[in-house]
TrEMBL record:
Key words of the record: 2Fe-2S, Flavoprotein, Iron, Iron-sulfur, Metal-binding, Oxidoreductase
Keyword Flavoprotein: yes
Membrane-spanning parts: none
Domain of life of the organism encoding this protein: Bacteria
Record InterPro entries: 2Fe-2S_ferredoxin-like_sf (IPR036010), 2Fe-2S_ferredoxin-type (IPR001041), 2Fe2S_fd_BS (IPR006058), Beta-grasp_dom_sf (IPR012675), FAD-bd_FR_type (IPR017927), FNR_nucleotide-bd (IPR039261), MRET (IPR050415), OxRdtase_FAD/NAD-bd (IPR001433)
SUPFAM superfamilies: 2Fe-2S ferredoxin-like, Ferredoxin reductase-like, C-terminal NADP-linked domain, Riboflavin synthase domain-like
Alphabetized Gene3D superfamilies for the sequence: 3.10.20.30, Nucleotide-binding domain of ferredoxin-NADP reductase (FNR) module (3.40.50.80), Translation factors (2.40.30.10)
Domain 2Fe-2S ferredoxin-type: 237-322
Gene: vanB
Keyword Coiled coil applies: no
Record-annotated FAD-binding FR-type domain positions: 2-101
Single annotated GO MF: 2 iron, 2 sulfur cluster binding
Listed PROSITE patterns: 2FE2S_FER_1, 2FE2S_FER_2, FAD_FR
Name of the protein described by the UniProt record: Oxidoreductase
Amino acid sequence: MNATFTVRVARTWREAEGVQAFELRDPDGAALPPFTAGAHVDVHLPGGVVRQYSLCNDPRDTSRYVIAVLLQEGAGSRAMHALEEGALVTLGMPRNAFELDTGARRSLLVAGGIGITPLLSMAERLNILDRQFALHYCVRSMDAAAFAGRLREAPFAHCVHVHADDGPASQRFDLPALLAGAGACTDLHLYVCGPAGFIAMVKQAALAHGMAAERIHVEHFANAGAAMDVSSSPSSFHVRVASTGKTIAVPAGQSVVDCLAEHGVAIPVSCRQGVCGSCLTTVLEGEPDHQDCYLTDTERAQGDRFLPCCSRSRTPLLVLDL
């Protein structure tokens, strides 16, 4: 399991319409565990709810973590917005499924709404490394633009472009123009975070403009695929635990993680949506039916790993390296 530690809410404030920001510090003033640009932490909330939030401060500053939470339907964001200054919160160690390639000569950061959070730490890092980059931030309105003031005052403000849907036409997000020639720029990496539809739009446009898939990096905040709801899945199959040879039937409507847990085989799990990668498991035999948004298309095609919190099997049997 991912180790945990306790932090105190040192400060909380309304960052934008519907967005609450939190500054988290060690209760005794010690340095927090280091993190890399694009990393997130698991936040353990009352009732056993665990949610992932990106760290959006400068990675060099380990005296604090800064996260921002958009109020949405669901227990996680409501519980976060209810936190008051002084409250103690349990976190998992920082993890990064959205790594920044610091060796790339040029980077293009594209955010939709609250997707700005991991890209803020990336921009901070790229600026320190004196790398060439541009940050494009798409919002419904400037009232909904989290960290707009921070971006205006940043030393890399000249690299930032904010696009508001209700703003003048001259500042509208022109994706084809932005990606023109991107396919020929083999030293350019693209990073996209935001709502699922926004990510899909940008990724598809980048591929259509000739960008190689390995240079397109995305991070989802939730798995928007309908297939992630295993309770409605009609398929049943078997899994075998390689270390013991025990074969377990996974019925329709139950996840592999939950089924194995009932038989005494525990797999670390957090988001249960195929987003965070906590439960990533090696597949020794069989063909997974991937329902996550964590693995890349290339990793899915290899078929040697899957996320048992949401994915299933295309074959009657999966043999797992457990």
